[in-house]
Specification:
Layout (H helix, E strand, L loop, with lengths): L1 E6 L4 H14 L4 E9 L5 H29 L4 E8 L2 H9 L6 E6 L5 H7 L1 H8 L4 E5 L9 E6 L11 H10 L2 E7 L6 H8 L6 E5 L5 H11 L4 E6 L4 H6 L3 H6 L6 E5 L1
Parallel strand pairs: 1-2, 1-4, 2-3, 4-5, 6-7, 6-9, 7-8, 9-10
Antiparallel strand pairs: 5-10
C-alpha cells in the first residue's frame, strides 16, 4: 500500500495536488493523509478562542471536500490531520517520520530563488525533508505517465536505493523512463545510472546547452512529451549550498510538468 501525505490549505493549488495524487496512485491500494496547518500569533486567551474557530472551520471544509472524493475513490483510505504549527516544520516532521512514501504538494511558482528560500512552503519542505516530494504545478491536470524523465548531471547518484520511489511509480503507471544527461559532455557516471535501473529498460538522451541547467531542462521539456520529471538532491555541505545554484529548487518553481524530488 502506498501512503501519501497531502498538505491542504483549501486553495485551488493544493486541492488540485490532492486530485492529482488520487489520479496517480488511486488505482493501487492507497492511504492518503490530508494535512491542514494553521497558526496565529496572539494573546493566550484570544488564541484559544481563535484556535477553536479555526479547527471547527477546517474540519467542516475537510468533511465537505472529502465527501465527494470518497464517493469517487471508495477504495482509498483517508485520514485527516489538523495541526497548529509552522507549515514547513509540520510537513517536514510528518514526512521524516517514515510513515509516508510520498509528500504531494502544489506550487504556484515563483520568480527566483529569493522567493523559494523566503516564502515558499514547498521550497522549505524540499530542503529539509528526507521523504520523496511530488510537486504539482498549479492548474496542471493529470495525464497518464507514458514517459518519465530522470534528469541527471555529471554525478547522478551513488546509492541505487534512492531511485525506488521512481521505480514504484514507473512500474505502477507502466511508464517508459528516459535518463536525461544535462552537462557539457558525456561522463561515465551516466552509464552507472543506467545500470542501476536497467530493469526499467531506460533510454538515454543528452542536453548539451547553455550552461544554465534550469533553462536547458525546461527547454527540453517543452519539446518533449514527458508527463513527470524526477530530480535527485545530493547531500551537500553548507558552504556548497550557499555557493552553488540549487537547480532542484529553482526547477520546482519553473517546471511545466510535475516533479518527483528524491533525496540522496
Amino acid at each position: 500500500m502506498n501512503t501519501i501525505l497531502v498538505p491542504l490549505d483549501f486553495s485551488d493549488t493544493s486541492t488540485n495536488a490532492l486530485k492529482y495524487a488520487l489520479q496517480l496512485f488511486g488505482s493501487s491500494p492507497l492511504e492518503v493523509t490530508v494535512l491542514h496547518i494553521y497558526g496565529v500569533e496572539s494573546t493566550a486567551l484570544l488564541m484559544r478562542n481563535i484556535d477553536g474557530v479555526l479547527v471547527k472551520d477546517a474540519n467542516q471544509k475537510l468533511s465537505e471536500l472529502l465527501k465527494n472524493i470518497r464517493i469517487e475513490y471508495p477504495d482509498v483510505s483517508f485520514k485527516t490531520k489538523i495541526v497548529k504549527n509552522n507549515p514547513v516544520s509540520a510537513i517536514v516532521s510528518l514526512g521524516n517520520s517514515g510513515n509516508y512514501d510520498y509528500i504531494v504538494m502544489g506550487t504556484k511558482g515563483a520568480s527566483g530563488l529569493k522567493e523559494v528560500f523566503l516564502g515558499s512552503v514547498a521550497g522549505g519542505v524540499i530542503t529539509k525533508t528526507s521523504a520523496p516530494v511530488l510537486v504539482v504545478p498549479a492548474e496542471h491536470t493529470f495525464r497518464p505517465l507514458g514517459k518519465i524523465v530522470l534528469a541527471v548531471g555529471n554525478n547522478p547518484f551513488s546509492d541505487p536505493e534512492v531511485i525506488e520511489p521512481l521505480r514504484t511509480i514507473a512500474s505502477m503507471q507502466k511508464s517508459k523512463v528516459k535518463i536525461l544527461h544535462i552537462a557539457d559532455k558525456k561522463t561515465p557516471q551516466v552509464e552507472k545510472a543506467v545500470a542501476s535501473i536497467e530493469d526499467l529498460k531506460p533510454t538515454v538522451d543528452y542536453a548539451f546547452g547553455t550552461g544554465n541547467t534550469n533553462k536547458d531542462l525546461n527547454d527540453y521539456l517543452m519539446k518533449d512529451s514527458s508527463a513527470l520529471v524526477c530530480l535527485i538532491r545530493s547531500k551537500k555541505g553548507f558552504l556548497d549550498h550557499l555557493l552553488n545554484e540549487s537547480v532542484t529548487l529553482k526547477q520546482t518553481f519553473n517546471s511545466p510538468v510535475p516533479l518527483l524530488i528524491l533525496h540522496e
